[in-house]
Specification:
This protein is α+β, with helices and mostly antiparallel strands. The protein has 2 helices and 3 strands; from the N terminus they run ααβββ.
Length: about 130
């Protein structure tokens, strides 16, 4: 280094390098957050689908809210299952029917505003 201009160029290069490293780190963190949120959402959809599948294969008269809610470990996901008997006008056939609805939440699954996101799936089961 011959004079102070080389030192100023070196400081400028270090500052630009720092900005590039910071932007790269931010991109990696955002990608990891997106991946984690996608995996949690996929898991919540799987839990809801599992509840609906179990209700689909359970006999109409044996549908039980407690059994559907206790299909898995509740460490990551919270569920609420509702079973509602529909009026004949709300049924797709002339047979009696019930609506099974699974609502899945997680402390780690949130909307952009910070509120909990709810994954909902439903099934209308008729008595044959």
């Amino acid at each position: 280094m011959n004079d102070y201009s080389d030192l100023i160029f070196l400081i400028g290069a270090i500052a630009i390098y720092g900005l590039l490293v910071t932007n790269t780190n931010r991109a990696l963190v955002l990608n990891n957050q997106l991946l984690t949120n996608s995996e949690i959402e996929y898991g919540a959809i799987s839990v809801a689908q599992n509840i609906i599948d179990e209700a689909r294969w359970t006999h109409y008269d044996a549908l039980n809210k407690n059994e559907l809610e206790n299909l898995y470990d509740k460490q990551l996901y919270n569920d609420s299952v509702s079973i509602e008997t529909l009026a004949p006008a709300g049924c797709p056939t002339s047979n009696p029917c019930k609506k099974v609805e699974a609502n899945i939440t997680s402390d780690y699954l949130k909307n952009g505003d910070g509120s909990l996101r709810v994954i909902t799936m439903s099934l209308i089961k008729t008595d044959y």
